[in-house]
Every structure is written in structure tokens, then in C-alpha cells.
Design brief:
GO terms for molecular function: DNA-binding transcription factor activity; transcription cis-regulatory region binding. It is built from nine helices and no strands. By secondary structure, it is mainly alpha-helical.
Length: 210
């Protein structure tokens, strides 16, 4: 007796199941090509060839190259950023570690496309801004929004340097080492800790008349 299929799962061999498998192949191929070549240089024809299907079928399933890009680079929701300052720092670092993963093809596709494709740039900006806003709300002290912005820019810069520019040293360093090196910076910014200036310099927040 054939075991019952879970609700919502197409039966093997049905048209719906064949479509699902084709869509998965197309999305995987699109993700890889967008990561390798960026949005502008990736064509529907190239995606179809890589997925061993017809360009017309890709258009029928996804409607446009822009929609295909949106589906291929869709990311899982980020974990909410909240808690104590140290917890906020660790959540930001955990999110950062995910983006360093060499298998994060969707991240690389988005990064490679963001300089030439407005939607990619908008998606990156929205993701960074959303995380930045949550982090700033949980940070103590003044200028939390500025400090959160610096963290976001630093993390994005390191990810671009590692995944896109392949900078010497950074490109092949273990992800754990990169995160460990950035940890004191992120924690200091989250907590609002300032390093003392050179001897003889005044604290910019101090009262000169005190």
C-alpha cells in the first residue's frame, strides 16, 4: 500500500511535482549564475541551459528575469536582534558568520548584482537597515543609530572583501577567525565603549569648563 503523501506535497510523477523539480533546478542554476556573473550578465537563456530546460518554460514559471532574481536570492528571515548588549553583539556576529559561509550563494549573487541592479541594491539596503534599526533600539548610550550604522557598514565591507573582492588573507581565513577578530569591535560599538585618546587629547564629551 502506498503511504499517504503529506498535505500540500505533490505526488511523485504528477505535473505539479515535475514543475516543482524544474523550478528547483532553475532557481539553483540562476543562483549560481547570478553569483558568478551578476544580474546584468546573466541571461534567461543561460539559466535555462544550465537547468537543462527551455527558456520559454523559465519565463512561463517566473514571468521575468527580475522575478527570477528575486526568487533566487530570497533569504531566510534574520533572527530578531534584541536582549542585553552582549546578546545583541553575538546575534549580529552570528548573522555575520552566516554571510561568510562559502555556500551562501544567494548572498554572493546579491552582492555581485547590487552595484548594477537597483533591486539588488534596494534589497541589501533594506536588510542592513532593518537589522541596524533593531540593533540601535537595543543599544545603550547616545549615538546608537550611528554605532549601529558603523557595525552594518563594517560587516558588509568584510563580506564584500571576502566573497566578492577575494582580498588576500581575508578570502581564505577561517570564518571563525574573522568573527573572533571582529568580536571586540562589535561589542565595543554595541556597548558604546570608547578607547582613550592619545595623551594630552581631550575627551570630546567632556566639559571644558569642569
Amino acid at each position: 500500500m502506498t503511504p499517504p503523501q503529506p498535505t500540500g506535497t505533490p505526488r511523485p510523477g504528477t505535473r505539479a511535482e515535475r514543475r516543482r523539480r524544474t523550478e528547483e533546478r532553475v532557481l539553483a542554476s540562476a543562483r549560481a549564475l547570478f553569483a558568478e556573473s551578476g544580474y546584468d550578465r546573466t541571461t534567461i537563456r543561460a539559466v535555462a541551459a544550465a537547468a537543462n530546460t527551455d527558456p520559454a518554460l523559465v519565463m512561463r514559471y517566473f514571468g521575468s528575469k527580475e522575478e527570477l532574481f528575486s526568487r533566487a536570492t530570497e533569504a531566510a528571515p534574520e533572527a530578531p536582534i534584541s536582549g542585553t548588549p552582549d546578546e545583541v553583539a553575538e546575534l549580529l556576529l552570528a548573522s555575520f558568520a552566516d554571510k561568510l559561509d562559502t555556500d551562501a550563494t544567494a548572498t554572493l549573487a546579491m552582492l555581485r548584482s547590487m552595484l548594477t541592479h537597483p533591486e539588488a541594491a534596494s534589497d541589501v539596503r533594506a536588510a542592513v537597515s532593518a537589522q541596524q534599526g533593531q540593533a540601535a533600539a537595543a543599544m545603550p548610550g547616545d549615538n546608537a543609530d550611528v554605532r549601529a550604522g558603523i557595525i552594518g557598514a563594517a560587516i558588509l565591507g568584510v563580506v564584500v572583501g571576502r566573497r566578492l573582492l577575494r582580498l588576500d588573507g581575508l578570502a581564505d581565513a577561517p570564518a571563525e577567525e574573522v568573527v573572533a577578530l571582529l568580536r571586540p569591535v562589535v561589542r565595543g560599538l554595541v556597548n558604546g565603549v570608547r578607547e582613550p585618546g592619545p595623551a594630552g587629547t581631550a575627551d570630546p564629551d567632556s566639559d571644558p569648563g569642569a
